[in-house]
Amino acid sequence: MFLAEPPRTPYDLNFQVLGFPVRVHPLFWLAGLMLGFSGGTDGTGLVIWFFALFFSILVHELGHALMIRRFGRDAHIVLYAMGGLAIEGRPRGGAFGSPWSFDSYTEFNPRPRSPQEQILISAAGPGIQFLLAAAVIAAVYATGGRVRPQFVPIPFPIPELGGALAHNHNLLRLVDDLLYINIFWALVNLLPVLPLDGGQIAMQLLIQHDAWGGMQRALWLSVFTGGAMAVFALFAMHEPFVMILFAMLAASNYLTLQQISGRRPW
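The chain above was modelled as a monomer; its predicted structure follows.
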């Protein structure tokens, strides 16, 4: 979701997954805590929520990183606030190297990505989340349970566990959180609003034949879609965090549009 890597802190969590260095910024836990409490979650539910959030966002960024690797480049991952980044190149110089210079990365390839590469990289994050959601739904049916659709205010699957797990409320919470994050959040992330993955895909499609005009159209699309989503989130979904997020994204894209308005490249 974010375009710039945050500065390193002494409180970062650092580890590796599938050969990719991963750094978790403290604001990731703070944002997760706010989202957990906003849903009325108790202590046990908060732990379950954090596990589902951490695992799902990590899987999302791994989708991006694996696609970057597919195109012959290395990558590292940062989880930050309400999202994360899959960044081309590997960090160098230990856990507290500077993230602001290309000199901080080894094997950095300055060759720009083609539009097709960027589209596939952007789509890989939500795509792998949908695969994870499908695996969770398959596991629910394997227990003898089912997943029924709910259509108010948006279509969404409601899991029901079966067999001996039918009354395991904590497991049901975990399944419900995983489906919420990996279906609803993944769909939201595909909306054509910059800098979300859907906005990146829309921008690449629009600028292929007209870089300057395509960028302006991508920004206008982001403004209108972000504004519409903010209104929908407030009045139909009753989701204040989603409303605030998309209102901020719409405003940010409008300011960017005003800054570039009337200025064309030489």
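The radius of gyration is 20 Å.
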